[in-house]
Known about the structure:
Blueprint: H1 2-18, E1 25-32, E2 34-42, E3 47-56, E4 63-76, E5 79-92, E6 95-109, E7 114-127, E8 131-143
Antiparallel strand pairs: 1-2, 1-8, 2-3, 3-4, 4-5, 5-6, 6-7, 7-8
Amino acid sequence: MKKILIVVVMALFAINASAQSPFEKAIGLRLGSGVGVDYKQFISDRNALEFIGSFGLTDPTYITVTGLYEWEWNLTDGLYWFVGPGATLGAYNSNFNVALNGIVGLEYKFNIPLTLGIDASPAWYFLDSAGFGWSAALTVRYCF
């Protein structure tokens, strides 16, 4: 029994030691239903904050700001998946709206300071445009 406990403790230390964030900070371009600027910063080995400022491609008066808290896990060398909750504030055709949203996606960190990610973000909108919606996006970030 003592040997099993020692093996379990050593395995937990090995898992924690291998759990490293793919980068510290990154900024980039987000392309989806709108165009935006994306900033992501890790606050621990597996937890990150992501901030997105975007505007609509088809309507120049569409603008949003989103904040997300994310958990990130390494799938293979350089490939990560992430999930998390967030909130969005937005203005659409002179109407103000608020949304609670989430995000789930994949991110690949190249051997150079560059990441490429794809994600989906469901949201529940309140106020002027109440209801459910979602978006998907491709993100390219420079890591520093």
